[in-house]
Amino acid sequence: MVTCPRCGQPAVYAPTNPARPFCSPRCKNSDFVAWANEEYRVPDASPEVPPDEDIS
Ligand SMILES: [Zn+2]
Fold first, then answer.
1. Which helix (H) or strand (E) holds 11?
2. If you measure from the C-alpha of residue 36 to the centroid of ligand 1, how many angstroms do you get, rounded to a whole number?
C-alpha cells in the first residue's frame, strides 16, 4: 500500500491497480491534467519594458 499522491488516501500498489501509485484512475487523470496544464503554461517571453520616455 502507498499513499495516493493526489488525495492522500491509501492506494494499492500492485499490478491489479492500473492507476498506481494513485488510488483510482480518477486521481491519476486528475493529476495528469494538472501536470499537463503546468506543461502547457508558456512562459511570457516578452519582458515588459517600462516606457520611461513617457514623462513629458
Ligand atoms: Zn487518490
1. strand 10-11
2. 18
Partnered with residue 28 across adjacent β-strands are none
> pLDDT tens, 1-48?
999 998 999 999 999 999 999 999 999 988 778 778 887 776 777 777
* Whole-model pTM over 0.90: no
Q: Residue 6, Cβ neighbours under 10 Å: how many?
A: 20
The cell 520611461 sits on which residue?
Answer: 52
Q: What are phi and psi of 39, to 5 degrees?
A: -65, -35
Neighbours of ion ligand 1 (CB under 5 A): 4, 6-7, 9, 23, 27
